[in-house]
Amino acid sequence: MKIRALITRPHEKGEQLARQIKAAHGAALCCPFIDISAGQQFDKVSSLLEKLQPGDYIIAISDNAVEYANSSLTLGNKTWPQQINYISVGPTTAKRWQKYGVNHVEIPDTHDSEGVLKLLANVLVTGKNIVILRGNGGRETMAEDLIKRTANVTYCEVYQRTVPNYDPEVLINKWQQFAINSVIITSGEILSNLIKTIPYTALPWILNLNFIVPSQRIAALAHGLGIEHVTIASGASNNSLFNAVKQLDMQIGIS
């Protein structure tokens, strides 16, 4: 494998993916374009979940949401409520919940807001309390749709994403010396942060690299920025991304 990948996801998962690539005799360089830390509503998890009634919903946008929410509950000597409907956007998030004793978690067919809405399309949510565990900001599609259907939706921003402070010229020199030939992106926000950080003079070079993204939506964003070479993984998990790395390695004939 001759892949030389730039991994832009947060540090812990980025390092895990780098180890997978290196074990397959590829090369990988981690440079997170999002940092994760406790959010403004980290200490409000217990009070929000205590208000839920049997049959209400908790939706987790990511495994980070579950991890930080669980840490908040643990600090307050609380546990995840029973008789609640749990929905995770993807299987990695569901596994994180299972780690903390929540075993009955629904997972949509597509791992995004649209997938969750499709999962709930035939469910009567009128009057239901729905807590969405997420980071700061993010897409509003899910909440807007559920509110239109007269559900009581509450966001709980248990973690926050911030942009690391990099010296752009130092980054480009490092990447070019490393001879990266592919970039792994796991969210639209990371893609935006990357492009905003790159010096204008280096944009033609970076846009001509091979990009790996986790969904059609982010692929469309990449194409809109002028990125031509995009491989779509089956999801944002490291295993899905690693499979896409192997696929790209074969497609461009650099093995």
UniProtKB/TrEMBL annotation:
This is Uroporphyrinogen-III synthase. Catalyzes cyclization of the linear tetrapyrrole, hydroxymethylbilane, to the macrocyclic uroporphyrinogen III. It comes from the Bacteria. Its EC number is 4.2.1.75. Gene3D superfamilies: 3.40.50.10090. Keywords: Lyase, Porphyrin biosynthesis. It catalyses: hydroxymethylbilane = uroporphyrinogen III + H2O. Transmembrane segments: none annotated. It is an enzyme of class 4 (lyase). Belongs to the uroporphyrinogen-III synthase family. Residues 16-242 form the Tetrapyrrole biosynthesis uroporphyrinogen III synthase domain. One of its GO terms (biological process) is uroporphyrinogen III biosynthetic process. It comes from Moritella marina ATCC 15381. GO terms for molecular function: uroporphyrinogen-III synthase activity. Pathway: Porphyrin-containing compound metabolism; protoporphyrin-IX biosynthesis; coproporphyrinogen-III from 5-aminolevulinate: step 3/4.
